[in-house]
Automatic annotation (TrEMBL):
Pfam families: ABC_tran (PF00005), oligo_HPY (PF08352). PANTHER family: DIPEPTIDE TRANSPORT ATP-BINDING PROTEIN DPPD, OLIGOPEPTIDE TRANSPORT ATP-BINDING PROTEIN APPD. NCBIfam families: oligo_HPY. It is a peripheral membrane protein. This is ABC transporter ATP-binding protein. InterPro entries: AAA+_ATPase, ABC_Ni/Peptide_Import, ABC_transporter-like_ATP-bd, ABC_transporter-like_CS, Oligopep_ABC_C, P-loop_NTPase. Keywords: ATP-binding, Cell membrane, Membrane, Nucleotide-binding, Plasmid, Transport. GO terms for biological process: peptide transport; transmembrane transport. SUPFAM superfamilies: P-loop containing nucleoside triphosphate hydrolases (SSF52540). It comes from Azospirillum brasilense. It is found in: Cell inner membrane. GO terms for cellular component: plasma membrane. The keyword Translocase does not apply. It comes from the Bacteria.
Length: 329
């Protein structure tokens, strides 16, 4: 088997607070091949954003990675020095945040910020860096890129600022982009345009992508594979077709049933009862147990992630569809 571009094994990120230890990421394992798009899905507080930040070493105190490995092109990034991580961030692994106004400097022109991003990693002239920036803006569909380079962030709409953020992420043709809900605040038309452009760029450049989101509809149109997270753990993983068509974990099924669909006209939408539990006070065993309509006594013990193969697995004693297969606990 070919070595994956990224392999995350048993990643644990904890926040040491006065109230106790918050296990935001608790044993997450993922793999990603070159050119592949992975959707990381879950409710708010599931740990998906912290997982992305942990991969790049961007977790601030009181949080810290306390266990596991993050193998990027065979190199373990956990415990790597800040100098080494700075060399990788932006150049080999780029990150797109949810709010571009939090990452774009309001007092510097777009051109200045993009040129500085290029020259931070490569010894090139300002003219060459400017030309590369111009091409990057054109690539994400921004018209009149020369004029836009001279503009400031407040002169762009939300969708255009997000395109700028994506363009900055593409400046060095990174091997991996981690996108943390970058289209959540955008209208549907702009969202569709950005999703199309991201897919196209991944196909053309071979860049791999982790798309962090709570929106399964977005994932179904964008990703190759999906990992579903709940309470800091991956509870199901598989291809988009497998997750959408035959979900095995009750939480995944609940997420899908809460999405409006023209294919289920007249059928009331179902909601998952209760709320996401506090990471400080998780129930014993399966964290989804108090909200699950399939829970049994066996669920008082945390199940392992197991299934048909490494990239098609679920963490459940009583998976959906188990009755027909005869493998219920």
């Amino acid at each position: 088997m070919t070595e994956p571009l990224l392999r995350v094994d048993g990643l644990k990120t904890h926040f040491l607070t006065r109230a106790g230890t918050v296990k935001a990421v608790d044993g997450v394992s993922l793999r990603l091949d070159r050119g592949e798009i992975l959707g990381l899905v879950g409710e708010s507080g599931s740990g998906k954003s912290v997982t992305g930040q942990s991969i790049l070493g961007l977790v601030d105190p009181p949080g810290r990675v306390v266990g596991g490995r993050v193998l990027f092109r065979g190199e373990d990034l956990v415990g790597a020095g800040e100098k080494r991580l700075r060399a990788i961030r932006g150049r080999r692994i780029a990150m797109i945040f949810q709010d571009p106004m939090m990452t774009l400097n309001p007092v510097l022109s777009i051109g200045t910020q993009m040129v500085e991003a290029v020259q931070a990693h490569e010894k090139v002239s300002r003219a060459e860096a400017w030309e590369r920036s111009r091409r990057a803006l054109a690539r994400v569909g921004i018209a009149s890129p020369d004029e836009r380079l001279a503009a400031y962030p407040h002169q762009f709409s939300g969708g255009m600022r997000q395109r700028v953020a994506i363009a900055i992420a593409l400046l060095h043709s990174p091997d991996l982009i981690i996108a943390d809900e970058p289209t959540t605040a955008l209208d549907v038309t702009i969202q569709a345009q950005i999703l199309f452009e991201v897919q196209k760029l991944c196909r053309e450049t071979g860049t791999a992508l982790i798309w962090v989101t709570h929106d399964l509809a977005v994932v179904s149109a964008l990703a190759d594979r999906v990992a579903v997270m709940y309470a800091g753990r991956v509870v199901e993983t598989g291809t988009v077709a497998e997750i959408i068509g035959t979900p095995r974990h009750p939480y995944t099924r609940g997420l899908l049933e809460s999405v409006p669909s023209r294919n289920r006209r007249g059928v009331p939408l179902r909601s998952i009862p209760g709320m996401t539990p506090s990471i400080l006070d998780l129930p014993e065993g399966c964290a989804f147990r108090p909200r699950c309509d399939r829970s049994t006594g066996a669920c008082a013990v945390m199940p392992e992630l197991s299934g048909e193969r490494e990239d098609r697995a679920w963490r459940c004693w009583n998976p959906v569809g188990a009755e027909a297969r005869g493998d219920a606990a």
